[in-house]
Amino acid sequence: TMLIVLLLEATRRLVGLPLVFVALFFTVYTVVCDSPFMPEMLRGVPTEFPRLIEGMFLTDEGIFSSSLGVSATFVMIFLIFGGFLEKSGVGEYFMEFAQAFTGTAPGGPAKIAVLSSALFGSISGSAVANVYGTGSFTIPLMKRIGYSPYFSGAVEAVASTGGQIMPPVMGAGAFVMAALLGVPFNTIMIAALLPAFLYYGTVLLMVHLTAVRDGLKGLPADELPSIKSVLKRLYMMAPIVLLVYMLLAGYTPMYGAIAGISLAWGVSLLTPGKRMGPKRVLQAIHDGSENIPLICTACASAGLVIGSVALSGIGFKFVGAVLTLSRGIPFLALILIAVVSMILGMGLPTTSAYILGAALGVPALAKIGIMPLAAHLFVFYYAIISNITPPVALAAYAAASIAGSNPNRTGFAACRLGILAFVVPFAFCYDPGLLLKSSLTGNMISIISGIGALSGLGFSITGFAKGRISSLHRIAFGAAGLLALHGNIVVSLGSTAFVIVLFLLSKRSGQTTTS
Q: What pLDDT shows up at residue 415?
């Protein structure tokens, strides 16, 4: 009992009260679920207190669940890997790489934000940390060339949030997912690849179209690193390349991360001013380890919920409620699970929100025939999306504080930019090709239709193709973009073709207003 109290107090200090309240609710419910004041639909068979303590401490469905084990091993070593990347100068190189290749293009600073956040966020796995890490540089640059403050903040928030769905690392939640599914981590990594590229492709397209529409230029070349100088130091990417290779080759994440750490140290020896002696190595370990107590505490408290769900049977009641409310219609069930996952994500760290959402929502999705991997990724996506969804959009609010903009306006702008993150999870539940789980032909069709979807949605939301487009064209582009993600091949390819035809017609028509 005392250990549970101490765990909840540690959670309050490190994570916050929302997770404490959730863990307390489920734990107390397990003991008093037959009370007269309990609603009929929530009543169940109570668990005696000694059995509750036994279940929480002596089984793998309590505090010491697989999620805590993953956090104390794989997540820990990857956080330290992130610390080594920072101290060795690889993180700084990501920014210079993005500046050199996108800085002079229309809307250059926004593209720098997207590319650098994709590179940095794929390792850090924390949306808010990514916002502060890259946004303090990119947001002022975006404002300088003419992007509005709220749009500048939205771009950074969306780009940083996407780091949690971008392989190779994808944050702590992806490792927990692999453990819950009982599959190698590279299975998760490969499945998440196409949705992540479509997400960032949509953001880049919208940023570009907005820049061209509003006549926003890039940065002067003399203010940016040259492509030649960046390519000379391409060896700085070696730790990431090695990590990706080892994960794809089937090595364990632990082995891959240790190899990446070793190579990051080796890379630092070739970089003046970044050479890692004993002191800098210890600093890298310290900086990388700072978030380990938070993540492990969050996973341990989430274990209280997992244990309570297993002991009380409330998971079965939740599944029954979802099936009843949705009448067994998969689309309606997905909407209900999406709402629950987003609500959990608004008050909890992403990993905790995913664990709770998976414990409650995945069994319901399995009942309606959704593939387990797709079901877990669906919950994972919507737990992450809450970072840019008002009223509790932590990444958007962090970006707004840097941009000096209205937090809610920044959040809603981020939702528009990140629209594909709201749509793609529904699509891959129907179309395994979006997770590269279909045949070669099916996967290729999904890639083509995905490009059609991001193009159609980009043109629709920005109101610009080769020139400004009418409201009717925007509706047509948006509808075609959404239908391009339909599970039916004829519908998806037909909609993609319609996007192309509509784009070509708008080009020939020479829209009256141009940038």
A: 93
Q: Which of 300, 291, 397, 294 is nearest to 346 (CA)?
A: 397
Beta bridge partners of 464: 468
| Cβ count near 504 (within 10 Å) | 12
From CA 98, how far away is CA 336, in angstroms rounded?
Answer: 39
Distance CA 275, CA 294 (A): 30
CA-wise closest residue to 19 among 437, 306, 288: 306
What's the rounded Cα separation, in Å, for the pair 205 and 309? 43
Structure tokens at 97: 């790489």
Reduce the secondary structure of 133-163 to three states and give it as a string. HHHHHHHHHHHHHCCCHHHHHHHHHHHHHHH
310's tokens: 């297993």
Check: CB of residue 198 under 8 Å from CB of residue 450. Answer: yes
Q: Tell which residue, 349, 345, 357, has the closest CA to residue 383.
A: 345
C-alpha 320/C-alpha 328 separation (Å) is 10
Query: Which neighbouring-strand residues pair with 468?
Result: 464
CB 239 within 8 A of CB 85: yes
- Yes or no: say if 68 and 56 are a contact pair by the CB < 8 Å rule: no
Q: Please answer whether residues 213 and 462 qualify as being in contact, where contact means their C-beta atoms are separated by less than 8 angstroms.
A: yes
Lowest mean pLDDT among 96-105, 257-266, 503-512: 503-512
Question: Is the Cα dihedral 338, 341, 345, 346 positive or negative?
Answer: positive
Q: For 176-216, how does the pLDDT look when each residue is reduced to its tens digit (9 = 90+)? A: 999 899 999 999 999 999 999 999 999 999 999 999 998 88
| 281-309 pLDDT, tens digit each | 999 999 888 888 988 998 999 899 888 88
**CA dist., res. 453 & res. 479, Å (int):** 9
Please tell me the predicted confidence (pLDDT) of residue 250.
86
The CA distance from 133 to 116, in Å, is 10
Q: Looking at residue 464, what DSSP letter applies?
A: B
CA distance 397 to 128: 9
Among residues 405, 127, 77, 396, the alpha carbon closest in space to that of 264 is found at 77
Indicate the domain borders of the chain.
66-294, 438-515
pLDDT at 122: 65
pLDDT at residue 123 in the model: 67
Residue 118, H or E segment: helix 108-124
CA gap 484, 202 in Å, rounded: 14
